Structures are given as structure tokens and as C-alpha cells.
Amino acid sequence: FQVPENRKTIWNTEEVPEGSEFDDTWDPREQPEYQILFKQCVGTEDVFFGMSRKDPSTACCEDMVIKIKLLETKYSDITLDIQDKVLDLRTPKKKLLLHLPYRVDSKNGKARFLSEEETLEVTLRVSRKFDFINFV
């Protein structure tokens, strides 16, 4: 247990989890269905020869794709905010606060709304430290 520098504070800012500023327990909007998928770039040297150390696990994936089902929603009604570990989506009827399983590059993601499927597809690059598998 660490004593805060200022004796009047209850906790240190490091103790507050990232994304807690978005949390609103009193918001009555329901959470939409969503799915998290992972993508990786592979070439023939990976598939046929196994020259890299990549495997099908999420540890070897470069991108995270979040598919969010938004029935009866227009593209113009969607508000999306991406932080390094948090996705915050709001529409007039739905709200999704998603703590991401991996840190992402929040500045260079892309999103597209598939109106026929009523789905928002958000693609984010996973930010990892360099290791023996992930060297891109």
C-alpha cells in the first residue's frame, strides 16, 4: 500500500483503470451484439514452408476486427471513440463500452458501416512490443 503524495487524495491516478471516464452505469441504452476477430498477414513462406514462427494464435495477429450489430441505425447517428485499450460506441438506442484485450494504435484504425448487414466493422492495429514472433 502506497500513501498518496497529497494526504487528501483517496487514490493515485495510476490506480484508476483506463477507460473508466467513459463508464456510465445509469445509462439505460442496451448493449449491442459484438464480435472480436483477429487477422494476420501471412505469405507463402508462412503457409507452405513454415519459415516464420507464426501460428494461428492471437499472439501472432496484427489486426483486431470488432463487428458490432447496430439494427435500425443510421451511419450519421454513430459516435465512436477509440483509446489505446477502450472502444466507446454510442447511438441513440445503443451503447457499448468495450475494454479491448490488447493495446491498439488508436490513431490509425478504420471503420466502415455495412448498411445491408446493419453492422459497424472497426479494424484496429494491435500495438505490441517487438518479440521473436511480432517484428513488423
UniProtKB/TrEMBL annotation:
* Domain PIH1D1/2/3 CS-like residue range list: 31-126
Query: What is a single cellular component term in the Gene Ontology annotation?
Result: cytoplasm
Pfam families, from UniProt?
PIH1_CS
Q: What Gene Ontology terms describe what this protein does at the molecular function level? A: dynein intermediate chain binding; protein-folding chaperone binding
Q: Which GO terms describe its biological process?
A: axonemal dynein complex assembly; flagellated sperm motility
Looking up InterPro entries in the UniProt record yields: DNAAF6, PIH1D1/2/3_CS-like
Q: Which family does it belong to?
A: Belongs to the PIH1 family.
Q: What is this protein called?
A: PIHD3 protein
**Origin organism of this chain?**
Oceanites oceanicus (Wilson's storm petrel)
